UniProtKB/TrEMBL annotation:
This is Acetate kinase. Substrate binds at R90. The record marks H179, R240 as: Transition state stabilizer. Its cofactor is Mg(2+); Mn(2+). Keywords: ATP-binding, Cytoplasm, Kinase, Magnesium, Metal-binding, Nucleotide-binding, Transferase. The active site is at D147. GO terms for biological process: acetate metabolic process; acetyl-CoA biosynthetic process. The lineage of its organism: Bacteria, Bacillati, Bacillota, Tissierellia, Tissierellales.
Length: 397
């Protein structure tokens, strides 16, 4: 079975075609600047790089170019589009209506539309990608895999905000959580590596990348997570503020006479380690700047590490017992120093990282000492594969 996985951002589209008989990626690609002058498709298969530079006014045109690239005589990997058996779509927000991946039907579509209110850049783009596939591949089934779905098992004590209950009842204002596909993948992989059934697994999944979130997993299910109504809450991220006193937000809005949209833009795009350091949102740049003595870059790194510690320790107490702390995402998989800094201080609880074992990037490794009370691990996440797996099993069922 061949499954195409599509991940539409507001002006971008990432795709991978999987051969699900062996779970191998046949080809992958990216379309940038959709709806902006200078659109570009880059498709890669091994050493072969195929580039289409042509303006694409919307996601429908982008999807159409993706299909052209997949069947291209010289650079494509399939002879005909009929070889695609199903398409899996990443969708950001499914609210309370969506608790698992699903074949597209009226209700799923309605949920994508309804929760645009909390994901105004992403859900409309996800819907456009979906509609383009329905139009161009009318006989193929589409599956939606939601970032929020994994977290729908959170209890009220972790998902409610401390505001008038009417905002939850009337407007569905609550914590939803994101990166669910990644946390779900990591949970399953950890159970497999530890030889435990998922239902018996308690763990902390730390997805640290441009966007970062931590998930407390109890009995294989999401019990708490650091992102909230939107992906803005929680850790300090590349350009997102994370947790902040709401009064700071209203103060800045009043002082600079900002609209809600302008303030959201500041909190999402101009804050985080980028805003604090004034250097970059990329942790590699921050680490070199800090090494050269840049105080603000060092402060940004220290803030990031401190918040990750705070969430991990708090979540361990919430779930009662913990089998593993797992690092994933661009930073979690690659930054040896940040993992070391985060775990410093956990020795008092008998949790110890082994500096030699921790000297790894990506893959799947236990990096704690043999006598550590909780296993610390590095596991490379694979959200696209998780989407392809869900798509395959739903279409087969
Ligand atoms: P996204 O959230 O966009 O999927 P990723 O998970 O790919 O992002 O993470 C990208 C981030 O990972 C980069 O911005 C960078 O900060 C960090 N990163 C990647 N490689 C390294 C490295 N070797 N050392 C430190 N940080 C790294």
């Amino acid at each position: 079975m061949k499954v195409l996985v599509i991940n539409c951002g507001s002006s971008s589209l990432k795709y991978q075609l999987f051969d699900m008989d062996n779970e191998e990626v046949m080809v992958k690609g990216l379309v940038e600047r959709i709806g902006i002058e200078g659109s570009k498709l880059i498709q890669e298969e091994g050493d072969d790089k195929y580039i289409i530079e042509e303006n694409m006014k919307d996601h429908t045109e982008a999807v159409s170019h993706v299909f052209d690239a997949l069947v291209d005589k010289d650079h494509g990997v399939i002879a005909d589009l009929s070889e695609i058996d199903a398409v899996g779509h990443r969708v950001v927000h499914g609210g309370e209506k969506i608790t698992k991946s699903d074949l597209i039907d009226k209700e799923v579509r309605a949920a994508i539309v309804e929760y645009q209110k909390f994901a105004p850049l992403h859900n409309p783009a996800n819907l456009m990608g979906l509609e383009a596939c329905e139009k161009l591949l009318p006989n193929v089934k589409n599956v939606a895999v939601f970032d929020t779905a994994f977290h729908q098992t959170m209890p009220k004590r972790t998902f409610l905000y401390g505001i008038d209950y009417k905002y939850y009842e009337e407007d569905a204002i609550r914590k939803y959580g994101f990166h669910g596909t990644s946390h779900n993948f990591i949970t399953n992989k950890t159970a497999e590596v530890l030889g435990k059934s998922v239902e018996d697994l308690n763990m902390i999944s730390a997805h640290l990348g441009n966007g970062s979130s931590i998930c407390a997993v109890k009995n294989g299910k999401s019990y708490d997570t650091s992102m909230g109504l939107t992906p803005l809450e929680g850790l300090v991220m590349g350009t997102r503020s994370g947790d902040i006193d709401p009064s700071a937000v209203t103060y800045i809005m009043r002082k600079e006479n900002l609209s809600p949209e302008e303030m959201e833009n500041i909190l999402n795009k101009k804050s985080g380690v980028f805003g604090v350091s004034g250097v970059s949102s990329d942790f590699r740049d921050l680490e070199s700047a800090a090494k050269e003595g840049n105080d603000r870059a060092q402060a940004a790194l220290d803030m990031f590490v401190t918040r990750v510690k705070r969430y991990i320790a708090g979540y361990m107490a919430e779930i009662g017992s913990c089998d593993a702390i797992v690092f994933t995402g661009g930073i979690g998989e690659n930054s040896i120093k940040i993992r070391e800094d985060i775990m410093a201080g956990f020795e008092q609880f008998g949790i110890k990282i082994d500096p030699e074992k921790n000297n790894v990037r990506g893959g799947c490794h236990v990096v704690s000492t043999d006598d550590s009370k909780v296993k610390v691990m590095v596991i490379a996440t694979n959200e696209e594969l998780m989407i392809a797996r869900d798509t395959k099993s739903l279409v087969e069922a």
